[in-house]
Amino acid sequence: MPDEFDIPNIWHQFRNPVKTIARTLDFIAEYVRPDPLTRRNITVVCLSDTHCQLPPDGVPFGDILIHAGDMTDKGTVEEIQAQIDWLDGLPHRYKVAIAGNHDTFLDPQSRQTLTSGEQKQSLDWKSVIYLQDGTAELNFSHRLGDGTHDRIKVYGLPHIPACGGPEFAFQYARGSDTWSGKIPTDIDILITHTPPKYHLDLPDWSALGDEFLLEDVRRTTPLLHVFGHVHAGKSDLISRLRGGRETVRWDASERHFARIMGRGPATWLFAGWLDVYGWLLLGIAFLLYAVNVVRDHLGCETNATRMVNAALMYRNTGRLANPVQVIHI
Question: Which domain of life is it from (predicted)?
Answer without folding.
Answer: Eukaryota
